[in-house]
Structure formats: C-alpha cells, structure tokens
C-alpha cells in the first residue's frame, strides 16, 4: 500500500509539472491553448482527492497554485481582466480539491465502516455456526440420553408387566403341587393358560416396538380394507352411540402389507370411536392427493387433544386413557413410516381430531 501511494504521488507531481511546463513554454498569443492547459489542472486535483481524500485534494490544489501563480504574475502581467480570470480559476482549484477530497474521504470512511460491519457480521455468523454445531452436538447427546432413559423406562414397565403374570403362574403351580387331587386342576390350568397368554402378549408388544416385523407387501385395495374395518367396528361404535361414515375416493391399488395397514387403521379408528361422545360421528375419507399419494383422513367430533398431549402422542407408553398401554399410535406410526408414508395429527381442544395418513402408491 505504501509503494502504491508513492507511485500515485509521483504521478500527480509529474502531471502538475508537465501541465505547468506547457504553460510556460507556450507563447501567450495562443490563448486558447492556455485555456485548455489551465483546465487540465483539474485532472490531478480530482485524482488526488479520490486517492488521498481531503488532504490530498487541498495539497494538490496548493501545489497547482504554486506552480501556476508565477505564470499569472510574470507572463500575464498587465492584463488585469485576464489576471482576475486566472485568480478565480486558482480559487476554483482549491474549492474543487477541498470539496471533492471531503466527499471522497467521507465515502472512504463509509466504505471502511461497511467493511467493518461486514467483518463483524462474518464473525457473528461464524460464532453462530459454531454455536449451532455445538447445539446440534448437545441435542444429539440429549437424544441419546433420552433413548437410554426410554429404554430404562421400557425395561421397568416390561419387568412390571411380566412380574404380575409370573406371580400368578407361580402361585397356581404351587397350589397344584400341594393339592394332589384333580378336582380343581382344570380351573388352575385355565388360569395358567390365561396368564401365559397375557405374558406372551406383553412380550409381543415389546418386540413389535423394538424391531419391525418382515412385511408381506402386495397390491391391495385400501377402500376394501377400510370397509372391512368399519364393518368390524360398527357394533362397538353403535354401543357407544357413535356413527361411522366411510367416503371412498377413486383410488388405484397400493403396494403394501394389508395385515399391517389393517392393524394401523384399526388403532386409529378405535381411538377415534373411544374419543367420541354419545351421538358423535367418525368420518373416514380416502382421496388421491395432488402429489400422487393416497390420503386417508380419520376425523372425529370428540373433545380434541391438548397441545401438550399432542406433542407426545406418538411417544411409546404415552396415553391419556386410564387403561391404555400407550403403544397403539407409536406402533401405527412405525407401520405407516415402514410403508414410506407419513402420519400427521391435527387437533384442538373441543373441536375434534383428524389423523391424516399419506401413503405412496409403491414403497
């Protein structure tokens, strides 16, 4: 930068000297040329103002005045009108140099300020990026901790659920061992079978949550599957005073596991029936969406779901029912996502709930 300033200064000085020599060496009778030469002084003055700011503009104007003044005094002496014009031109040199230098300096200050602001914004962006990366790492650690916590909670619930039927099985076995007669043996054996089935169901639910089962995907008709589910649940709906409605849209066949979709739709529809009050209505509608996916909407007129519960509705073991296990919707979401689809819920307290299932035509 220092060498550049020296080069610019030398260039300006050479320009002033060259223009002054043109004045001194040109005969006075060529007044037109002198008028052109005195206008040429503005070039180094303006360049100095742009390159060096206010001081550069004024300094170059003073240099021009010093170089040009002897030409006015000694060569144009005696021409009063001509001298006044030249003196006014000298004043203009200094005015132009000062104003242009001031404006150039202000522009430079503004540009430097903008550069500092840009550098500050860049530093802020870098800090924000580092903080966001840190937050992502912390979030991942929290997610791992949450998974470990969920695993611990899952293990505790599984142990609790298994312990009760195991206690019943053990007690029944002890009674059979102590009682040698076969009078009550059939009754106790029924208890053993019942508790064993219950234990098996708990383990199956746990395994269903832990790992996906192999899918048997083939072409199936979703309208037909939903019609079968509505028929199966119509009696339960009538018992609760709830009306079921099925609106079938024109749907192409979908490649899916009908058994798993049956389970998922059954879970959603059962929840909708249980959430509806006496005289309520549950509506199931199928449509082909604009994005080429099949959409199934389950809408009830129940009490709705609070925002706090809505955020946790798909978490395992979360339930708002007194007797629920909290696995139904979690398993349902896993089934839908296993088919490449999405499961969304919209609800407001007092305004009912809508579950939207979107499935691709092929997995």
Automatic annotation (TrEMBL):
First-level EC class: transferase
GO molecular function: phosphorelay sensor kinase activity
SMART domains in alphabetical order: HATPase_c, HisKA
Coiled-coil ranges from the UniProt annotation: 111-148
Chemical reaction(s) catalysed: ATP + protein L-histidine = ADP + protein N-phospho-L-histidine
Domain Histidine kinase, chain residue ranges per copy: 157-363
UniProt keyword list: Coiled coil, Kinase, Membrane, Phosphoprotein, Transferase, Transmembrane, Transmembrane helix, Two-component regulatory system
EC numbers: 2.7.13.3
Family matches, as PROSITE patterns: HIS_KIN
Transmembrane segments: 6-28, 40-67
InterPro entries: HATPase_C_sf (IPR036890), HATPase_dom (IPR003594), His_kinase_dom (IPR005467), HisK_dim/P_dom (IPR003661), HisK_dim/P_sf (IPR036097), Sensor_HK_Regulatory (IPR050736), Sig_transdc_His_kin-like_C (IPR004358)
A Pfam family annotated for this UniProt entry: HATPase_c
Protein name, per record: histidine kinase
Organism listed in the record: Geomonas terrae
């Amino acid at each position: 930068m220092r060498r550049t300033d020296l080069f610019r200064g030398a260039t300006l000085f050479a320009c002033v000297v060259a223009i002054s020599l043109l004045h001194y060496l040109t005969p006075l009778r060529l007044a037109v040329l002198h008028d052109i030469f005195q206008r040429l002084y503005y070039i180094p003055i303006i360049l100095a103002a742009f390159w060096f700011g206010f001081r550069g503009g004024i300094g170059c104007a003073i240099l021009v005045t010093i170089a040009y003044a002897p030409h006015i005094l000694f060569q144009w002496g005696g021409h009063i009108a001509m001298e006044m014009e030249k003196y006014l031109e000298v004043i203009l040199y200094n005015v132009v140099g000062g104003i242009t230098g001031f404006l150039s300096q202000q522009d430079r200050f503004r540009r430097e300020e903008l550069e500092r602001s840009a550098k500050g914004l860049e530093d802020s962006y870098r800090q924000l990026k580092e903080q966001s990366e840190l937050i992502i790492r912390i979030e991942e650690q929290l997610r791992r901790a949450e998974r470990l916590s969920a695993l611990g909670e899952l293990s505790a619930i599984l142990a609790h659920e298994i312990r009760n039927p195991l206690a019943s099985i053990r007690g029944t076995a002890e009674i059979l061992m102590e009682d040698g007669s076969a009078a009550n043996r059939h009754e106790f054996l029924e208890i053993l079978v019942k508790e064993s089935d219950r234990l098996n169901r708990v383990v199956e639910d746990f395994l269903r949550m832990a790992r996906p089962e192999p899918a048997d995907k083939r072409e199936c008709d979703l309208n037909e599957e939903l019609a079968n589910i509505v028929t199966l649940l119509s009696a339960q709906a009538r018992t609760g005073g709830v009306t079921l409605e099925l609106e079938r849209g024109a749907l192409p066949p979908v490649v899916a596991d009908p058994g798993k979709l049956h389970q998922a739709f059954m879970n959603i529809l059962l929840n909708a029936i249980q959430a509806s009050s006496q005289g309520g209505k549950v509506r199931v509608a199928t449509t082909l969406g604009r994005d080429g996916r099949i959409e199934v909407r389950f809408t009830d007129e129940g009490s709705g779901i609070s925002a706090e519960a809505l955020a946790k509705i798909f978490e395992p073991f979360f339930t708002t029912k007194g007797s629920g296990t909290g696995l139904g919707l979690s398993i349902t979401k896993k089934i839908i996502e296993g088919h490449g689809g999405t499961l969304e819920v919209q609800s407001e307290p007092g305004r009912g709930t809508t579950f939207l299932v979107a499935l691709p035509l092929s997995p």
